[in-house]
Design brief:
416 residues; alpha+beta; 10 strands; elongated
Length: 416
């Protein structure tokens, strides 16, 4: 009970002295605020990036494999010279894979390819350098591309190669001045097509497919403008497994069929890449980890400067309150009472600085989420870590001045 009373009195005295020197207290807090802001902002940014990527991956599911020429993994072991000579996935390979696959393992298969530098026009506007994606099979069952208006391709569109198109949100906005374009005609590199759907707005989502600025066509129609295995095309086969199937089982099944199709000998390496959505998020997690370390180092030096500022202010405070310390000791104040005053003052300044830094970062994050399509996520553990670091800096910065004050001789202190 006695200790609690002394602690409350020391806190009350510390707050009174801080209020008496508001400008000095604010300047002391500012250094800590900047340091904590750096750390919390960088950790929040990397956490939000990773969270956005994983959310996009979760929308599609983790049972999806893309058969491509190039692997998605990068680094020192990336043998681009080997990958460059690989053949691109072909339509007949997609057809064989669809026909020969184990239907209890593989649920959906699709083929698609992309090519750029296309001209898309309407009666209102013409756009150049537009990306086109030609699709075949269960593309829209695998990739959860939602439509804002109209519909996706049906079997008749895909099999017949009908001149139909689905346009991205921005494409529709630019070509038809905000009006609903479904059922209207456009020209694609001089050929007419009918719009059957408009993709829902996606924005600058990270880790997912960007389809606001593309035009989707059935493969048979798209082949009028570019061959799937031409020099400017990027073809892929995409496979979706059943929910109860492990991703490794799915990989083994796809590898087995592709090696059979391409007649690869048992001891030869695969001449195709099996890319999984989790590979993107996992590789980026390592990058984010390095960014966190770099951000922590930058924030540490900022906090170090702030800590020196707090320590300097505390030494000045001890000198200014020397006579007060002497009077307190003359009236019977213990060393722990004097020490706790200055130590609490130092820690309190750092906590206030940390809270100001966190509030500042939250304000920036909420503003960014409101003004842009990028969603900022906040982590309670990041905030807790920032406050913990601030408390540690406060203890380190304040312990020496607090000990100096607590060990003062009362007679000498009263004479000053």
């Amino acid at each position: 009970m006695k200790f609690t009373l002394l602690f409350k009195e020391s806190i009350a005295l510390s707050i009174r002295f801080l209020k008496a020197n508001k400008l000095r207290s604010f300047l002391s807090v500012l250094g800590i605020t900047i340091g904590i802001s750096c750390i919390v902002a960088i950790f929040t940014a990397t956490y939000s990036l990773e969270k956005n990527i994983r959310n996009n991956v979760d929308k599609l599911g983790d049972k999806i494999i893309y058969v491509k020429k190039w692997p998605w993994t990068y680094g020192n072991g990336y043998k681009w010279w080997e990958y460059m000579n690989r053949p691109k996935p072909k339509i007949r390979e997609y057809q064989r894979l669809t026909r020969d696959s184990n239907k209890e393992i593989i649920k959906n298969t699709a083929f698609y390819y992309e090519f750029s530098s296309n001209k898309i026009g309407s009666i209102h506007e013409e756009l150049s350098d537009v990306k086109i994606i030609g699709v075949m099979g269960d593309f829209f069952e695998i990739n959860k591309w939602e439509v804002f208006s109209g519909r996706v391709f049906n079997n008749f569109d895909l099999i017949s190669g009908k001149n139909s198109a689905i346009v991205g949100y921005n494409i529709a906005l630019n070509l038809f001045e905000g009006k609903n374009p479904v059922g209207k005609k456009i020209t694609i590199n001089g050929s007419k097509a009918t719009i059957v759907g408009v993709f829902d707005y996606q924005g600058s989502s990270i880790g997912g497919s960007q389809y606001d600025d593309i035009v989707a066509l059935p493969v048979k129609f798209a082949q009028r403008f570019a061959r799937p295995n031409g020099s400017g095309s990027s073809p892929s086969i995409v496979i979706n497994g059943h929910e109860n199937i492990d991703i490794n089982t799915l990989s083994y099944e796809v590898t087995r069929i592709m090696r059979s199709i391409r007649k690869i000998k048992p001891k030869e390496k695969n001449n195709f890449a099996l890319n999984k959505l989790t590979m993107v998020s996992d590789s980026l997690s390592q990058t984010f980890g390095m960014i966190d370390i770099a951000g922590g180092i930058i924030g540490f030096f900022s906090l170090l400067v702030g800590g020196f500022g707090i320590a300097n202010i505390m030494f000045v405070s001890v000198k200014e309150r020397t006579s007060v310390i002497g009077l307190q000791k003359a009236l019977g104040a213990k060393q722990i009472f004097i020490l706790s005053q200055f130590l609490f003052e130092s820690v309190f300044l750092c906590i206030v600085g940390a809270l100001m830094g966190i509030i500042f970062v939250m304000g920036l994050g909420l503003t960014a989420s409101y003004l842009t399509s990028f969603q900022v996520f906040f982590s309670f553990s990041t905030f807790t870590f920032g406050i913990s670091i601030a408390i540690g800096i406060g203890i380190i910065a304040g312990i020496s001045p607090a000990i100096l004050a607590s060990k003062m001789d009362p007679v000498t202190a009263l004479r000053k």
